[in-house]
Design brief:
The complex is a heterodimer of chains A (113) and B (114).
Chain A (H helix, E strand, L loop, with lengths): L3 E4 L2 E4 L5 E7 L5 E8 L3 E8 L6 E2 L6 E3 L9 E3 L9 E7 L8 E2 L3 E5 L1
Parallel strand pairs in A: 2-11
Antiparallel strand pairs in A: 1-3, 3-8, 4-5, 4-9, 5-6, 7-8, 9-10, 9-11
Chain B lengths: L2 E3 L4 E5 L4 E3 L2 E3 L5 E7 L5 E7 L5 E3 L5 E5 L4 E6 L8 E8 L7 E3 L3 E6 L1
Parallel strand pairs in B: 2-12
Antiparallel strand pairs in B: 1-4, 3-9, 5-6, 5-10, 7-8, 8-9, 10-11, 10-12
The chains are: A mainly beta (113), B mainly beta (114).
């Protein structure tokens, strides 16, 4: 692994189903983020984590949960998928103590039917 | 809470002409400012950042941006646009007051016309 990796890259999901999007980084960054990208709305922060063991809510947290059991992994769970949850999801990480830029994964395109 | 405004939805520019993409921000405290570019069906790629020091920062692919504290702006510029610069551009701001929240603007579509 080099950088930040998201899985899956795309997924079709039935409404009401639970889904976990995976995000792993190998840069030992302390901060990690989940964003959703909707057409015309840019990137909106869902949840973030400053360091392992802590998480915080972003702009649009409803219907989503996260965990940060260790430095490398930051999974995002949709408890019950709804059709409005069909943007592209991006995971990112940064070393905020050194003020590095955020590094982004390639995105997960989710379709809820 | 920090926020970013990118007032224009789309910026059209002729190839070879100067390109400017506007960004203003709102934060409590000193801002850390970033520009990213996104090509179709791809993730975001970092272009440049302002943390401290010289207000004019230079980044990848010939881009630069100027931090203006009095106008709370961080406009992205390129002296001579290329067709390959056509993409979606995002401005982002972060400050550290107990959290590391990185806030993005809605993005600007840049179209460089041959």
């Amino acid at each position: 692994i080099a950088g930040i990796t998201q899985a899956p890259t795309s997924q079709i999901l039935a409404a009401g189903r639970r889904m976990t999007l995976r995000c792993t980084q190998d840069m030992r960054h302390n901060a990690m983020y989940w964003y959703r990208q909707d057409l015309g709305l840019g990137l909106r922060l869902i949840h973030y984590s400053n360091t392992a063991g802590t998480t915080g809510k972003g702009e649009v947290p409803d219907g989503y949960s996260v965990s940060r059991a260790n430095t490398d992994d930051f999974p995002l769970t949709l408890a019950s998928a709804v059709p409005s949850q069909t943007p592209v999801y991006f995971c990112a990480s940064s070393d905020s103590d050194r003020n590095t830029e955020a590094f982004f994964g390639q995105g997960t395109r989710l379709t809820v039917v | 809470a920090q926020s970013v405004a990118q007032p224009e939805d789309q910026v059209n520019v002729a190839e070879g002409n100067p390109l400017t993409v506007k960004c203003t921000y709102s934060v409590s405290g000193n801002p850390y400012l970033f520009w990213y570019v996104q090509y179709p069906n791809r993730g975001l790629q970092f272009l440049l950042k302002y943390i401290t020091g010289d207000n004019l920062v230079k980044g990848s692919y010939g881009f630069e941006a100027e931090f203006n504290k009095s106008q709370t702006s961080f406009h992205l510029k390129k002296p001579s646009a290329l067709v390959s610069d056509s993409a979606l551009y995002f401005c982002a701001v972060r400050t550290y007051y107990g959290n590391n929240r990185l806030a993005f603007g809605k993005g600007n579509q840049v179209v460089v016309i041959p």
